[in-house]
Amino acid sequence: MLGVEGKGDGKGKGKGKQGPPPPGGKGDGKGKGKGIPFSPTPGEKGIRHPYESPPAHLVAPDGSLRLRLHNTMKSAEDTIWEGLDCWGANGTDVLEGTMLDFDRLQELWNPVQPPVQPQPVMNTALPVDFIRKAEVAVHSAKLTHELVHKALTMDISCVTSEQAYILDAQLVPVASESAAYIHMAVNRRGLDSLTATERVLWTIIQIPVAASRARIVAVQQDLDEDISHVQESIERLESVVMKLKQSRSLRTVLQTLLAVRNFLGQQGWAGYNVSSFDGVQMERIAPLTAQMADQTWLRENNPSILVLVAERLQSTHIYRCRLRFLRMITVAKVVPKDNLRKLVWSYLDDLQESPWDALSVLQDCSPTICSRELYDKFGLMARHFERILTADLAAVGVEGLAGEPGNLFSRQLQTLSVRLEHARNTCLDGCRSLGTLAKQAARLGGETRNVRDIFAAGGAVLHSLKTFGIQLRKEMETIQFHHKALALKKWQDTGAQADSCRKWALVDTRHLCLMATHDLDIIRYLRSGVVSTQSSANAHQYASTARMQQTNRILAHYKDLVHGGIEGVYYRDPETGRWGRRKDGVDGTAPVDIMLGGPRPSA
C-alpha cells in the first residue's frame, strides 16, 4: 500500500509507504482519511495512478505489448488477495519454492512473429482429391493391401460388412480413375515408393474384374438380412390384413360405428368407406355454432360420432368384465372340486377379448407397409441380384479366374450363386404378394372403384384406420378417466355413510391362527372350549390382556427342592446357612434307618 491522499496541507495520515507529497489542499491542515493509492509511472512524473508501479527490473520496454487488465481491485483488504505480493512470490502463506520465471514472461514483450507455414510435401502420385477420398476410406475401414487381395481372390468372407461396402462403393471407383497415375508412379519410382493407400489401390488395379469381385464380396455380407427384410415386410402386411378380416374386437368397433351412424341418420346403409373415418371426430347430428364453445356442454348435449362410439365401446367393456366375474363366482359355487372347476371354466372363459384390443390392431395399420416405394425397392433388389448372377459371377468364372475348382473361393462362389437365386425369387415373390395384399386392403376399406394405383389406395385405407385408432384411443381414455373420477367422488361423498347392502357372517379362522401363531396365550385361548366363532377374532386382544395380567401376578415363594422335599423338612443353621438333621428325626447315618423316612421293611 502506498500513501493516501487526504484533505489538508499535505499532512494526512494513512497506511503504507510514504508517497510523493500531494499538492496542498484546503483546510486547517489536520484532515484525516483514506484515499486512492498512487505512484508515478517511470517517465510520467506527477501523474497519479490507482495501482502500484512495477519495480525497475520488471518495467517493460517502451512500445512493448501489454496485457489488458479487467475487473481490478483498488484494495485487497478482507479479500482472498490480502497479503499477497504484487511483483513476486513473497506473499503471506505462499508455498515455499514458488517459481515465477520472469525471464520467460519478458520474452512475451517481443513482437509476435507470424507462424511459419510449412510447405506441403507431396509424397503421393495421386491428385489431392483422389488421395484424400482414398485415405479416409482406407483408414476408417482399416484395410490393407493383403486383406483386400485375400477378400477379392481367396476368401470373400474375410472382411466385415462395413469393409466390403467401402471396398465396393468407394475404393474400386477411385482405383479405376487413378489407375494411370499409379502406373506412372510405379514405373518411375518403383512399387516400394507407394504409400499404404496407394498400395491398396494398386492391388485393386492388378486384380482382374475387381469391380465384379467387389460387388460379390459386398452382396454376400447383407444377403441374409435383405431376404429377412423382404419376408418380414410381407408377413407384417399379411398379419394386418388377416386381423382386419378376423378380429372380433375390430368388428365390434365397426358394428358400433355402423349402428350409431345409421340410427342418427335414419338410413340403413350396409357400410361406409374407410376414408369417411377422417372426419368422424367432427361429425355431429347438429352443426356447430358460435354458442357451442363450451366443450363440456358440447360433449353432453351435442357429442360427436367418435364420442358416442367410444362411450358405447366402454360400456361393452364394462359389461363383459362384470359378466366374466359373475361366471367365475357361479362356477366356484356350483362346481364342488377344483379340477372340475378348471374344466368347466376352460369352456366358459370366452370373454377375455375386449373392444380395447381393437386399438392395437388399428395401431399396426401403417401405410408404409403397403406403399409403392416398398414395391419398387423389392424390384430393384431383384434386378441387382439378377445382375450379379448373370454378369459378375459369370465374369469371375471366365478363364479360371475363380481359381481351382475345389478351392475355398470356388466353393464360396457356387454357394453364393444358389443364395442369390433364392434371394431374387424371394424379392419377386414379395412384389407379387405385396400387390395382392394391397388390393385386399383397398377392398376391405371400400376403395375399389376407379383405382389406378392399388398401392396408393391400400396405403390410404391403412392410414385412415391408423388415424381413427389414435382418435378412438384418446376418447376412450378420456371416458375411462371420467368414470374413475365419478366413482371416486361418489365413494368420497357416500362411502363412509352408506349402509352395506349385505352383512356376511364371521368366518371361523381358529385353525388358521393355530397353524400360524407361536404365541402360547393365543394357542390356549383358541384351544379352550368356550371360544365361539363370533369371538375368535378377539384372540389377539385376549392374549394381550393375559400378558398384562401375568405381569401383575405376585411371584410364588421360592422353594428349594435340593434335599428331596419342600422347605422346612431340614434344620438350617442361621449363622452358617448349612443344613442339619431332619425335623422328623430320621437319621440317614444310622445302620437301621436306611430308608430316610420311607416305608420300613417288616420283620
Polypeptide structure, described:
With 603 residues, this protein is mostly helical. It contains 19 helices and two strands. It has a two-stranded antiparallel sheet.
Strand order, sheet with most strands: 1-2
Count of DSSP strands:
2
Can you summarize the main beta sheet? 2 strands, antiparallel
**Number of helical segments with 4 or more residues:** 19
> What's the overall average pLDDT, rounded?
77
Class from secondary-structure proportions: mainly alpha
Globular, elongated, flat, extended or rod-shaped: what is the shape? extended
Beta fraction: under 5%
Rg over CA atoms, rounded to whole Å, is 51 Å
Q: How far apart lie the N and C ends? A: 130 Å
Helix content: 40-55%
Tell me the series of helices and strands, N- to C-terminal.
HHHHHHHHHHHHHHHHHHHEE
Given as residue ranges, the uncertain stretches (5+ residues, pLDDT < 50) are: 1-19, 24-47, 533-537, 554-565, 590-598
